[in-house]
Amino acid sequence: MSNPLYVINVEAAIYREDKYLIIKRSEKEEHALGVLSLVGGKVDGRTSENNVLENSVKREILEEVGVEVSNSLHYIESNSFISDKGYIVVNIGFLCKYESGEARCVSEDEVSEVHWMGYDEILSNPKAPSWLKSSLKKAESVRLIVENF
C-alpha cells in the first residue's frame, strides 16, 4: 500500500536526574522541521513482534541520539495529528529513564541539536512548541509518581 491509512509514531520523554533530553529536529525531516521535540519516530511495521511500541521507541532513541534507556518504560499519552505531508499520525508517548551513552546527533538527517534541559527551562522556552510543553507536563506528572512510588 503506497499511502497508509495512518502512521504510528512513538516518542520518548527521557529524563536523567532533573533534566529531559530535548532535540531540535533537522531541517531535512518530513514533519516539524527545525522545532524542539522529544526523541521519536515511526513504528516499523514490516515484521511481527511482541512489544512493538516499546522496542520501537528504544530503537529510535538509540538511532537518533545514541543513548540507552532502562527497560521500565511508562506510558504518558496518545494523541493524533496530521503530518505536514497529510498523513494521519497516531502518536504514543513514553517516559524513559536514561541508562547510558552520550547524547549526540547520531542521525543528522533527523536531529540537528541535542540538549539536556530542566523542566521549567523547557516550559519557559519560547522556541518550545505548545504540543511539546503539553507532553512534557504529562511526562513530569508520571515521573513524579514513578520516582516517589
Automatic annotation (TrEMBL):
CDD domains xref list: NUDIX_Hydrolase
Positions of the Nudix hydrolase domain: 5-139
SUPFAM superfamilies: Nudix
UniProt xrefs under Pfam families: NUDIX
PROSITE patterns tied to this protein: NUDIX
PANTHER family: ADP-RIBOSE PYROPHOSPHATASE (PTHR43736), DIHYDRONEOPTERIN TRIPHOSPHATE DIPHOSPHATASE (PTHR43736:SF1)
Family listed: Belongs to the Nudix hydrolase family.
Protein name (database record): NUDIX domain-containing protein
